[in-house]
Amino acid sequence: MNDDTATDTATDTATDTATDTATDTATETEAGAGRDAGAGALALRPLTARSIVLSTLLGHHPPRLPARALVRVGELFGIAEGTVRVALSRMVAAGDLLQRDGSYGLTARLLARQTRQDASRSPRTRPWGGGRGEEWEIAVVATAERRPAAERTALRQAMADLRLAELREGSWLRPANLDRPRPAVATEQCTWFTGTPDGDPAALVRRLWDLDGWAERARALLAALDRAGTPADRFTIAAAVLRHLLADPLLPGGLLPPDWPGDALRLRYAAFETELRELLRQFVEPGPTR
Questions:
Q1: Which residues are in the Transcriptional repressor PaaX-like C-terminal domain (predicted)?
Q2: pTM more than 0.85
Q3: Domains 49-121 and 211-284 share a fold
Q4: What is the strand order of the sheet 136-141 is part of?
Q5: Tell me, which fold does domain 49-121 have in CATH?
Q6: CA-based torsion, 58, 106, 32, 34: positive or negative
Q7: Nearest-angstrom CA–CA distance, 97 and 57
């Protein structure tokens, strides 16, 4: 490893640790992607070796690839093979990846993240009319005792994953249009109800979620993907798209503003996924010795 590679690796590791922490928060914030094709307006940062590996595996089914394929993806971004391989070794040591027979796959925590991402792209829904009188699901923290910070943080993450919004401290709700299991952290800390809010449900939705802000960023991501000229540009912006979909409240259509861009963003990501699958197929298949 030369001096430049060592420097890049040290910088990469520090930046990736911060990036992965950010993208695992309740809001799955968009701290770790972007190049020049629309990235400036979106305030995205370049992907690092670790982010590239994670984004590739999270977007691939099954989430396991040979090292040579991950190295080739890194090359699209101008990242040296040695830097990618050092990142892989450190990710195995950190418990993010499992290595077997020259291939790398996600561990349980990141498999759960992939499951959340998949659900954000193809949510399971229930019939919901969209007007007054329709049921909402409501969760209220059940204990009067002060909970440790770790428990409160875990509950907030779980509620974000369930797409519930916080009305006030300890009270969460949303339209009951989603069909998904509730994790133990949510059932143990909260009492759950179904109910019907008084007043206009659309007005309550606007109070609970920043729909205009989500839609504005979604349209900016769509425009950036349209302008992206290279696979690396599309990869970095698509990684931000996937994180943004994790923040989609997945509301019934009757409660959404006109021209809601959620479905368009999902379709656009599906097109990118097809492109990525073909790219990885080329990288995985044996080729001439390099």
A1: 219-285
A2: no
A3: no
A4: 165-168, 171-175, 136-141, 190-195
A5: Arc Repressor Mutant, subunit A (1.10.10)
A6: negative
A7: 10
The residue among 53 and 146 whose pLDDT is bigger is 53
Token duo for residue 90 = 């450190």
CA-CA distance, 279 to 33, in Å (whole number)? 19
Q: In sequence order, what E strands does 214-265 have?
A: none
Residues comprising the chain, all counted: 290
Q: What is the DSSP string of 89-136?
A: HHHHHTTSEEEETTEEEE-HHHHHHHHHHHHHHS--B-----STT--E
| 3 state SS of 169 | coil
Query: Checking phi first, is residue 231 left (phi over 0); if not, alpha (psi -120 to 50) or beta?
Result: alpha
Dihedral Cα 106, 109, 110, 116, nearest 10 deg: 140
DSSP state of 148: P
Reported as a single tens digit per residue, the pLDDT across 240-280 is: 999 999 999 999 999 999 999 999 999 999 999 999 889 88
Element (H, E) at 171: strand 171-175
Spans of all domains in the chain: 49-121, 136-195, 211-284
Task: Say if residues 83 and 49 touch (Cβ distance below 8 Å).
Answer: yes
Check if the beta carbon of residue 254 is closer than 8 Å to that of residue 129: yes
Check whether domain 211-284 has CATH 3.40.50.720, yes or no: no
- As given in the structure block, the two tokens for residue 233 are 């540009």
pLDDT tens across 216-246, in order?
Answer: 999 999 999 999 988 999 999 999 999 999 9
In angstroms, the Cα distances linking 209 to 160, 189, 205 are: 12, 23, 6
